[in-house]
Structures are given as structure tokens and as C-alpha cells.
Amino acid sequence: METFKGKTALITGASSGIGEEMARQLAVSGCNLILVARRTERMLALKSTLPSVSVSVITADLSDPLAPQYVFDEVRRRGLRVDMLINNAGFGLQKPLLAVDQLGMVDVNVRSLLALTQLFAVPMAQRGEGWVLNVSSVSAWFPIPGMATYAASKACVLHLSRALHEEWKSAGIAVTALCPGGTRTEFSSIARARMDPDLEKAMMPAEVVAAAGLKALAQGKAVVVPGALYRMMVALVRVLPASWVTRLAGKVMGRHH
Predict the structure, then answer these.
(1) How does DSSP assign 80-116, residue by residue?
(2) Helix (H, G, I), strand (E, B) or coil at 181
(3) Alpha carbon 187 to chain centroid distance?
């Protein structure tokens, strides 16, 4: 990842999982970091293991609609420049929509991502160079009964990223959507109260997923789906009837009854 040497990346959701792995891999490549998450202690602990690059920590809860502007203003106040924005923060619930309020999920997965992307893309466009990596999901291709809001939010991220990939080419900004399937992170254990054994077997290491996303971003790809199994799943969506896809997704992922 020579592309990112000497650059500065802002990573949301950087205290664990894919975000933490991206921070480690970028640091090895000589990329400076701005870590954004709710858990200050976790970010400071990560920072202590990355002595070779400049690492800044900003504590923010992206479920707060005011948080993206706060993060942007704090970056400017500290005199930092963001060359690369990695919108990794997100969460999911395996709950029927009638059972629990899910607007907070939309605030984190969509609203904050869009706000941060708009804010940081303006100076990128002014410089004529920038990178945006949005973490979507294989779920973006599947309407999932039982996880309807999560899947819909990730579909929004995927479509937004694809459109901006084309829209911002002339501005010198590369936009990539990373669409992982099951990944071994804290997120997966929180999203699912009980991990299905078959799904557990298909889960990928966070470091592999992170590496795939960063490589695709450096190569200027619009979308990357790590793992042959998950690429096959996405391919099947294109040939199966939509009603089959929805029912199958509900049985495998949503477990709605």
C-alpha cells in the first residue's frame, strides 16, 4: 500500500474489528491515523501499539446527528488534513422491526456516513485528490426479513458508493464500497444473540477483510466482496427470482418466525 504512505486516514469505528485492523495495516504502510469511536480507552490502547506514525484520537458517538460536524471541526482545530476517509462505524440488530426502534441504526450506518463523506470530500476535491472507503455488507444485496433495517442501510451505502465512485472521478476522489460477509468481530457477536454454527464456519478473519478493502481502494475499484463464497452469493442474487432471494435471506440470516 505504497499509495497511502505519508497520507492521513480518518477511520470511524476504529476501536475494534475491521476498523482496528485497517488502522494497524495502514500504520505499517506509513499512513498517519485519526481514530474515531466512542471508546476512548480502546483507541488509546491501539495508539500505544502504533508508535511509527502520527495517531490522533477523537471520541465521538456517531448516533448523535451533531457528531459528524464535531469530528470535522475537531480535525480542523487540530490542524490535521484527511487524505482518506474510512467510514467503518456501524451496527446491526437481528430484531423484527415491530420489536424495537431501529432509527439509531440508520443514524450510524447511513446518516453519519453521508454527513462525514460530504464534509471531508469538499477539501479533497479542492486538492484534487482523496480516497473514501465505505464499509457496506454482502447484506446490501439481500432484503433480510428479521434484519430488514440493517440490510436496507447497507444497500444505501453500496448504491451511494457506486454512484460517488463515478461522480467524483473528475474531482480526483476514489470511492470504494467494501462489502464483507460474516467477519469475526465484536460486531457479529452483538448483532446475533446466538451464532449459527454454519454461519460461524463461513466467517472471515477481520485482517483479511481489512486488507481486501484497502487494496481495492488503492486500485480504484468501485466495489469489493472478500471471499469466494460471498462473491458466489452475490452472483446468485442476479439469477434467482427476487421472492426466492428474500425468503432465503430470511431463513438463513433473519431467522424470523
Answers:
(1) ---SEEEE-------S-TTTS--HHHHIIIIIIHHHH
(2) coil
(3) 12
Q: What b/e string do you get for 70-85 counting C-beta neighbours within 10 Å, with b at 16 or more?
A: ebbebbeeeeeebbbb
CA distances from 4 to 53, 105, 129 (A): 12, 31, 12
Cβ atoms of 158 and 178 closer than 8 Å: no
Q: Which residue has the cell 498517519?
A: 32
With CA atoms as reference, report the closest residue to 249 among 241, 49, 211, 42. 241
The model's pLDDT over 158-182, given as tens digits with 9 standing for 90+, comes to 999 999 999 999 999 999 999 998 7
pLDDT value at 94 more than 70:
yes
Active site members: 150, 154
The enclosing domain of 185 has a CATH number of: 3.40.50.720
Residue range(s) defining the domain that contains residue 250: 2-254
Are the CB atoms for 109 and 150 separated by under 8 Å? yes
Least confidently predicted of 115-119, 142-146, 172-176: 142-146
Average pLDDT for 148-160 = 96
Counting Cβ atoms within 10 Å, is residue 24 exposed (0-12), middle (13-18) or buried (19+)?
middle
As a whole number of angstroms, the distance between CA 62 and CA 38 comes to 8
| pTM as predicted | 0.90
Task: Estimate to the nearest angstrom the gap between the alpha carbon of 170 and the chain centroid.
Answer: 24
Based on the structure, what is the number of domains in the chain?
1
